[in-house]
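Example S7 (structure tokens).
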């Protein structure tokens, strides 16, 4: 075996071991917005399962009254729940990343203009100052989003639209990773986990289903993740090593693997 091939195998195996040892912990922040919340929670649920990560929840004061705190906690299997005005987090350095499942117009405007009179805004800025990755779902903050149109809001005031857009743009300039609620998983993979869900592998289409050929060696969790929500049949040659964490994901999601 060539040294370069051995190095690649060892590197992939070490990554898998580190993934098992390293516990990812996210702080999920939920404000009072409702647009995109259900999709965001669904994405976060998938993320926590796939990454074998844990999470704490921080609800704004309004969110704790608007949303069903216990239902969201149970769905995300969260460890701790913090409520703005009642609790404060001792050390946000313990978190791998901070995810705003719902970023409202109000929170976006305050954070963009560094108005830190709300704890959820203060903690966003604190995370950015500490270099902790911050991801925010923009559906409720972007008045051009389909959710607002579904509610009957069609804003033709160009100055108003521009002002809301500027708030989001300023947050991006601060380092906040803005995405739509149905792209949270992909954004976390890209920004925090360091992989992308976009696959460059060739897909063979048959009458029954698509077949993906994974002929790299070894096959790791990063190679498997893009196919979790598909009916793709994955072909892996028998001489290819499947790493332990990849095996776990294959088993957990009952993926169809074909080996010769």
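Recovered sequence:
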């Amino acid at each position: 075996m060539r040294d370069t091939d051995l190095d690649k195998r060892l590197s992939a195996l070490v990554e898998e071991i580190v993934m098992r040892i390293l516990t990812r912990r996210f702080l999920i922040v939920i404000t009072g917005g409702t647009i995109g919340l259900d999709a965001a929670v669904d994405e976060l649920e998938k993320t926590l399962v796939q990454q074998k990560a844990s999470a704490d929840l921080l609800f704004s004061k309004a969110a704790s009254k608007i949303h069903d705190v216990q239902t969201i906690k149970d769905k995300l299997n969260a460890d701790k729940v913090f409520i703005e005005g009642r609790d404060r987090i001792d050390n946000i350095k313990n978190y791998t990343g901070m995810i705003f499942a719902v970023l409202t117009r109000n929170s976006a405007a305050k954070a963009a203009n560094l108005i830190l009179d709300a704890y959820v805004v203060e903690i966003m800025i604190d995370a950015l100052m500490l270099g902790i990755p911050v991801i925010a779902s923009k559906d409720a903050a972007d008045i051009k989003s389909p959710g607002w149109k579904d509610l009957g809001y069609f804003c033709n005031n160009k100055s108003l639209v521009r002002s809301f857009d500027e708030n989001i743009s300023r947050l991006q300039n601060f380092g906040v990773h803005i995405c739509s609620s149905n792209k949270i998983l992909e954004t976390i993979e890209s920004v925090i986990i360091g992989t992308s869900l976009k696959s460059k592998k060739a897909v063979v289409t048959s009458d029954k289903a698509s077949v993906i050929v994974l002929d790299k060696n070894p096959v790791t969790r990063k190679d498997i993740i893009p196919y979790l929500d598909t009916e793709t049949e994955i072909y892996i040659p028998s001489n290819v090593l499947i790493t332990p964490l990849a095996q776990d994901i294959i088993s957990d999601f009952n993926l169809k693997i074909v080996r010769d």
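Notes on this example. DSSP finds eleven helices and ten strands in the chain.
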